[in-house]
Request: fold
Amino acid sequence: MAGLEVLYTCVAGNITCPQDAVVCFVHWELIKNGYRCIGSGDDARSSDKKSELLPADWSNNKELYSLRYKANNSDTQMLLKAITVDSTLIFNLMNSSTQQVSDLTVNINDHVNTDQLHTFDSVFKDADSLSEKVKTQLLPPQDRPTGQRAERKSQRDEEEEEQRRRGEDSDPLRIPSRNPRQGTHPHWPDPMVPPFAAGGADLDPFGSRGGGGMIVDPLRSGYPRSGFDPSSGIPDILPPGAVPPGARFDPFGPIGRHRPGPDPDHMPPPGYDDMFM
Reply:
């Protein structure tokens, strides 16, 4: 890696543990992506100046590293912190203006040879993988590779669109859109073709397929029946022609209910209003 070897050689005297090597590596990734280190600690100092090198006191605290950076082409300032937790380093990079934070967790043993700290050629393991993690997880989104940023944006837009559609479909109070969605229409099987033929007569009220709509049709049950034909009309109920010939007809009252003579229900039974009966 161009430049990293020079940097590592310059700070080799301050590298006494594996986490020092990892912090040095991450520092160089920030330098490559347009940032310059302006000092250590959380607060600005009068001695702050842009530099590709690490400050003299950058590795004094092995449990908490704190470095400040400034972009080359803007006033954006970043605060990098690295916390040691067992055999891992947890990095946090915060934009001092927007308070936007990104983070990265590095397993030290996966990327550093502990017994080769002062031999640059063999100190780092799987350096390309570590570099990719820094670019994709720690660097601010605008500093990540354009292709990957566009791909992630496209994927995020698709996920948001899918969530929006699910929300629309699950909202019982939503009025459907007048414009149908674009795309292929679902394939609905023909209810008249096996194995969906059961109940198909319900969709054929005129009996063109050989039966009415009822499972047990009293007009086509095969048992002897009276000559009642609903298409001829029902006195005082349906006029002639109201029911098409051969169509399914569900009587909504007893046929011939208007019998001559008095209705037995017209006269109340004797003593119906006597509560003691």
User: Anything to note?
Assistant: The radius of gyration is 42 Å. The chain is about 25% helix and 15% strand. The longest strand covers residues 77-85.
